[in-house]
């Protein structure tokens, strides 16, 4: 059972090695001619005004929170879908269970929508 | 170590090397293909100076990227700045390891090498580097790790354009990931297993899922486009607003790694679409490809590549045909359209399977597939004709939606 994961470990090692190799090779081979302008952050040729790490829109946090909630719901649906196929005798019960679950989810989703969590303008 | 395990490891290493060399060469050729296709669509010639017909252009680009000067902005966070390209490169290439690319190959060997000892393998070997039982759950998990590379690249550069690009990219990728996850649930309802080999086997026994699950296919392709950050969803690097988005500050090989990751993601999404909806390596209308043998493996492998190339070309075609979304349109498409449609769709499919399969007693997968296909025609009509009249994506067709008088009077007062 766990033997299937051994090649995956090999692949991870190989890919990480390749990524590190590319970074190191490029570090060795590239030429360096540093100037003060080159070391600045790019701002379309204008002098850099301030640090970039200022406050940004709270919308992004909101999207992240909604994502966590809904992605976890999706994770719950995967085993349900597999069980729906593998337990044909109970499919009616499973269907009702999923509808109840989705009902709760939809109530929350409608709340988020009505409160304007999904608006960007 | 016993000889069987050693044989298994030897095979795994061989498959891994073949797959990765193939994917890297494929990525290099895709960069050329993209330029050629765009040139063709825009009535130009494209790169044609390096090698015959510009065929060596990717090699020249790679060499150039390797020796170009690396820049590291003074204000950037050096460790994360260095780590970000690798964090985007690694997940992109990892995903190609678990997609079956050809029919299983019967392979028996038993030989001994000096120092290493005896290697034994018997029976058919699946043509996939790691035949994971968790299948596309792994792909969903790893593809969501790609967002780290982009978000960290945007933040660590400490440049305004990079930060905005990184923020946009993370918000967009997490939004469409929900839709992507929801759109594969109907496949689980039909296949009953998450491993790719069982999904392919189920499609060989019935219909390719593109017919019984057409809407899921549509949702998957759209969310896949958004996940790979390609046009019309390339908000993260919208060059007319954000210079180059999250990789504005990157040069030389670090930039090339983001580039490789993007094209590797294109290949992976295409390969996933083919595997989940178009039968993977299956050759239609024949059972010959399931007999097993070297010839079958080669034929199915080439057929798989042809199918994947079709989707790669489709993605390029879309890129040079459609304009970019506005950001609020993009988010409302994801949250207000794709997620709802995907949720309602899998419930409808579940009810249909329950009614057709368990109440009416249709057990033949092919007959079930045709019933579901008929249902999909109705659903497509409802979604694309009745629902979508410029209303789905807000503001996409202002002519068709006259502004109500109450709104205009409010706007004039304020």
Compact overview of the structure:
The complex is a heterodimer of chains A (121) and B (414). Chain A is mainly α and 121 residues long.
Count of discrete domains of chain A: 2
How many DSSP E strands of chain B?
4
Oligomer state of the chains in this structure: heterodimer
Query: Order of SSEs of chain B, N→C?
Result: HHHEEEEHHHHHHHHHHH
Overall structural domain count of chain B: 1
Using the CA coordinates, give the radius of gyration of chain A.
25 Å
Helix content of chain A: 55-70%
Low-confidence runs of at least 5 consecutive residues of chain A? none
Structure description:
The complex is a heterodimer of chains A (121) and B (414). Chain A has three helices and no strands. Chain A has 121 residues and is an all-alpha fold. Chain A folds into two domains: 2-39; 58-114. In chain A, helix 2 (59-86) runs antiparallel to helix 3. The longest helix of chain A has 28 residues, at 59-86. The relative contact order of chain A is 0.05. The mean pLDDT of chain A is 82. Chain B is mostly helical and 414 residues long. Chain B has one domain (3-397). In chain B, 64% of the residues lie in helices and 5% in strands. Chain B has helices at 3-41, 57-67, 78-94, 136-156, 160-183, 185-191, 196-205, 214-227, 239-242, 252-277, 294-319, 327-359, 365-387, 405-413, and strands spanning 102-106, 109-113, 117-121, 124-127. In chain B, the strands form two sheets. Chain B has a two-stranded antiparallel sheet with strand order 1-4. In chain B, strands 2-3 form a two-stranded antiparallel ribbon. In chain B, a hairpin with a 3-residue loop joins strand 2 and strand 3. In chain B, helix 2 crosses helix 10 and helix 10 packs across helix 11.
């Amino acid at each position: 059972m766990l033997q299937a994961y051994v090649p995956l470990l090999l692949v991870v090692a190989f890919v990480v090695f390749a990524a590190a190799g590319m970074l190191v090779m490029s570090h060795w081979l590239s030429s360096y001619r540093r100037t003060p302008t080159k070391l600045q952050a790019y701002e379309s040729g204008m002098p850099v005004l301030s640090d970039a790490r200022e406050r940004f829109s709270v919308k992004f946090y909101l999207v992240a929170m909604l994502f966590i909630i809904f992605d976890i719901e999706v994770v719950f649906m995967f085993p349900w879908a597999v069980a729906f196929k593998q337990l044909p005798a109970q499919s009616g019960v499973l269907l009702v269970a999923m509808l109840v679950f989705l009902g709760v989810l939809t109530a929350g989703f409608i709340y988020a929508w009505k409160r304007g969590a999904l608006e960007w303008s | 170590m016993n000889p069987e395990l050693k044989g298994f490891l030897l095979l795994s290493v061989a498959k891994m090397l073949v797959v990765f060399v193939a994917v890297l060469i494929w990525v290099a050729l895709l960069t050329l293909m993209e330029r050629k296709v765009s040139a063709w669509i825009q009535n130009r010639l494209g790169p044609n100076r390096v090698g015959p017909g510009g065929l060596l252009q990717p090699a020249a680009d790679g060499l150039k990227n390797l020796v170009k000067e690396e820049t590291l902005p003074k204000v950037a966070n050096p460790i994360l700045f260095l780590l970000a390209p690798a964090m985007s490169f690694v997940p992109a290439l990892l995903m190609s390891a678990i997609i079956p690319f050809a029919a299983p190959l019967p392979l028996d060997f038993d030989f001994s090498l000096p120092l290493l000892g005896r290697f034994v393998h018997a029976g058919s070997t699946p043509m996939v580097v790691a035949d994971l039982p968790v299948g596309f759950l792994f792909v969903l998990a790893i593809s969501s790790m790609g967002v780290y590379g982009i978000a960290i690249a945007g933040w660590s550069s400490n440049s305004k354009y990079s930060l905005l690009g990184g923020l946009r990219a993370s918000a967009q990728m997490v939004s469409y990931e929900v839709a992507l996850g929801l759109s594969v649930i109907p496949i689980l309802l039909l296949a009953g297993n998450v491993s790719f080999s069982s999904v392919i086997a189920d499609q060989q026994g019935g219909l390719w899922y593109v017919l019984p699950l057409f809407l899921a296919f549509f949702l998957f392709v759209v969310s896949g486009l958004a996940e790979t950050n390609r046009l019309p969803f390339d908000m993260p690097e919208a060059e007319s607003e954000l210079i180059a988005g999250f990789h504005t500050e990157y040069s030389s090989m670090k930039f090339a790694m983001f580039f490789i990751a993007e094209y590797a993601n294109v290949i992976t999404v295409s390969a996933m679409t083919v595997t989940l909806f178009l039968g993977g390596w299956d050759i239609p209308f024949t059972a010959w490809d399931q007999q097993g043998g070297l010839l079958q493996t080669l034929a199915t492998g080439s057929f798989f590549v042809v199918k994947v190339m079709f989707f790669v070309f489709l993605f390029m075609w879309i890129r040079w045909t459609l304009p970019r979304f506005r950001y609020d349109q993009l988010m409302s498409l994801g949250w207000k359209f794709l997620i709802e449609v995907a949720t309602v769709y899998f419930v409808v499919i579940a009810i249909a399977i329950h009614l057709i399969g368990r109440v009416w007693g249709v057990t033949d997968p092919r007959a079930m597939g045709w019933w579901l296909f008929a249902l999909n025609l109705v659903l497509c009509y409802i979604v694309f004709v009745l629902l979508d009249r410029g209303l789905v994506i807000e503001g996409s067709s202002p002519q068709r939606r006259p502004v109500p008088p109450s709104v205009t009077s409010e706007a004039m007062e304020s």
